[in-house]
Design goal:
The complex is a heterodimer of chains A (311) and B (295).
Chain A: H1 2-13, H2 30-59, H3 63-72, H4 74-107, H5 113-121, H6 128-139, H7 146-151, H8 160-171, H9 174-186, H10 189-196, H11 201-230, H12 233-239, H13 249-258, H14 262-293, H15 301-307
Helix pairs in contact in A: 2-14, 3-14, 4-8, 4-9, 4-11, 6-8, 6-12, 8-11, 8-12, 9-11, 10-11, 11-14, 13-14
Chain B: H1 2-7, H2 16-21, H3 31-58, H4 61-69, H5 72-105, H6 111-117, H7 120-123, H8 126-137, H9 144-147, H10 158-182, H11 186-194, H12 199-228, H13 231-237, H14 247-256, H15 260-294
Helix pairs in contact in B: 3-15, 4-15, 5-10, 5-12, 8-13, 10-12, 10-13, 11-12, 12-15, 14-15
The chains are: A mainly alpha (311), B mainly alpha (295).
């Protein structure tokens, strides 16, 4: 009968692994499994899929030409350019730091190592708004260095340097956090062999360490980049919102939205949503790749994403 | 490590920097350069700017600090931020456990997609999430138009704040619980079943205690994130004074009034809260690892 056929299809779909026919003592009854999966799917649809779909639906509400007009508007193009510039500055800075910190922490034993590791994580526990505020307190007109900067006519806050600084702060731990556990798990035997055989430190790093950490490095860099391009709170505090000059993509989204220019706001937002999807795609690919290669140090990779924060 | 240092003292006298910090000799080069660069960069980018917040607030004096943080509007924002974050983190624990459970244990269509998209709240810029949620839950939005006839208003109310915080907090619990659940050996549950426990008893007496440290860690991570969250909340919150203003927004409001000292005082309260949470999370994670090894 149709009902039982549907039920058997459902059973084979919503089954626990290895228990498609008979129920084991260590699995749940069919109705429990079905209810739990239904709850998860409903929550997933409501809280994750709908917002994502809404971005694209709103962006294309008035058709392709309205969408394109929103994206190629000079202010939007200026925001794209600034966002790329900020990411292109902040990511390499934190990349170099991440490699240096991971080299020191993973390859050597020294006093204060645990403290250093904890301090590197600090920016993730600071609210984005505070991450912007600290640079206002330092470089703003009333700040510590305010008078000095004014004398030399250097602008940091409400200008591009402030945006870069705030972005560097919020993306600070990404690469280091990724590399430290990976390099610790790999140990330093290979590097020591290389150095003992006469290779220089740089050659050792380039030919021994780098090939070992390349996926972890890439993982850290794409997360760092996603956050750098998508950061809103911190950048919003230091930017001053000057159209065409100090507006990054997320700030442009905010301005357009507050002007009730919804199609343009969502058109620009759709670019950032695509970036997010691309980031998740590359992330899944790296996880699949490292899981398949079975190389050390990636078992906790998903878990580490957690402490790393987000845009 | 101390025993290693005693057993095998560094063969030659090291330079000052290394003698101070380095306990174990290594043939690898670059220690001083790598550590020196890391520490200086950390100090310049993170530590000195953060210290500025505390120094600035100390100029307020105790009384000024108290006055700045106990204004009714500021207190209302504390209450909303901490309250909504607590509820959101609790909701995330329940649904995070369900997600981790079905992703680890069951097979169903769309599972891989869900597993990949769970991290969406991390990857999606908060401003984008904010305007999307505000549009969905507005009275004419996809979800809002369904809820409005039932008399439930989400957008521009404290409920909207809660929705945004649930959105951004979910992955923290899922990704903390998932690997721990994956590592739970089937033998443990089989033993419970052999000893006569039914499935619910096994779940509540064996699995939940095993998962408790991970669930608490996920709760603390989601809560910490929610307290500081700005972008995804402000669009849906409506930002009415005394009703739906969150703490980070109060900082922005004070800054816009050029009340830097007032903004800093609120920031200090938030920073202390997040440092306490950071400490708590470290303790919880150590506990998770221990109970992980036990089973």
């Amino acid at each position: 009968m149709a009902g039982s056929a549907a039920q058997s299809i459902a059973r084979s779909w919503f089954s626990a692994p290895d228990v498609s026919r008979r129920r084991l003592a260590t699995s749940e009854p069919f109705w429990v499994r079905a209810v739990l999966i239904a709850l998860a799917l409903a929550f997933f649809g409501l809280f994750l899929l709908l917002p994502l779909a809404a971005v694209f639906a709103e962006a294309f509400k008035k058709g392709w030409s309205a969408y394109a007009a929103g994206v190629v508007h000079p202010d939007a193009l200026a925001a794209i350019k600034l966002t790329l510039l900020v990411a292109a500055t902040a990511v390499p800075l934190n990349l170099v730091f991440g490699v240096a910190a991971a080299w020191a922490i993973a390859k050597f034993e020294f006093r204060g190592k645990q403290l250093l590791t904890t301090l590197i994580d600090l920016p993730f526990s600071v609210s984005p708004v505070i991450s912007g505020l600290i640079y206002i307190l330092l470089f703003g007109a009333q700040g510590w260095f305010g008078p000095l900067l004014e004398t030399y006519d250097v602008k940091i806050v409400f200008a591009v340097p402030g945006i870069v600084l705030a972005t560097v702060f919020v993306t600070f731990p990404f690469v280091a956090r990724e590399l430290i556990p990976l390099m610790q798990a790999q140990g330093s035997d290979e590097e020591e062999a290389s150095v003992v055989l006469g290779a220089s430190g740089w050659t050792t790093f380039r030919t021994v360490t780098l090939p070992n950490i390349k996926w972890g490095l890439l993982y850290g860099v794409i997360l760092c980049n996603a956050r750098a391009m998508g950061e809103f709170g911190a950048v919003s505090v230091v930017s001053g919102h000057i159209r065409g000059l100090t507006n990054t993509l997320p700030l442009q989204v905010e301005i357009l939205y507050n002007e009730y220019n919804f199609v343009a706001a969502f058109a620009v937002a759709s670019l950032l949503a695509l970036l997010a999807l691309l980031t998740l795609g590359v992330k899944s690919f790296i996880e699949w790749r490292t899981a398949r290669a079975g190389s050390g140090g990636n078992s906790g990779q998903q878990n580490q994403f957690i402490e790393r924060g987000q845009p | 490590m101390a025993s290693i240092a005693l057993a095998a003292p560094a063969p030659q006298a090291r330079r000052g920097f290394s003698t101070l910090l380095k306990r174990k000799h290594s043939v690898l080069p670059g220690f001083s350069l790598a550590l020196g660069y890391s520490v200086i960069y950390l100090a310049l980018v993170v530590l000195i700017p953060l210290a500025a917040v505390f120094l600035k607030s100390s100029t307020l004096g105790w009384e000024g600090f108290w006055n700045a943080t106990t204004q009714p509007r500021v207190l209302a924002s504390f209450k909303l931020s901490f309250g909504a974050s607590l509820i959101a983190a609790a909701i995330n624990v329940v649904f995070g456990l369900i997600f981790a459970w079905v992703l680890v244990r069951y097979r169903f269509p769309g599972k891989r997609l869900i597993d990949a998209l769970i991290d969406l709240p991390f990857a999606l810029p908060t401003a984008v999430a904010g305007i999307a949620l505000a549009t969905l839950y507005a009275n004419n939005g996809w979800v809002g138009s369904v809820l409005a006839p039932l008399g439930v208003e989400v957008a521009y109310t404290p409920l909207g704040v809660l929705v945004a915080l649930v959105f951004i907090g979910l992955p923290f619990v899922v990704r903390t619980v998932q690997p721990v659940l994956e590592d739970l050996e089937a033998e443990v549950e089989e033993a419970a079943a052999c000893l006569g426990a039914n499935r619910w008893q096994t779940f509540s007496k064996v699995i939940v205690p095993y998962l408790t440290p991970a669930l608490l860690t996920g709760f603390a991570l989601a809560f910490a994130r929610a307290v500081g969250e700005y972008g995804s909340v402000i669009f849906i919150a409506g930002n009415m004074p005394m009703v739906s203003e969150i703490m980070p927004l109060m900082i922005i409001t004070k800054l816009e009034q050029y009340d830097y000292a007032g903004a800093t005082a609120i920031a200090v309260v938030m920073l202390i809260a997040s440092f306490v949470l950071l400490l708590l999370i470290n303790v919880l994670q150590a506990w998770t690892q221990r109970s992980h090894q036990r089973i």
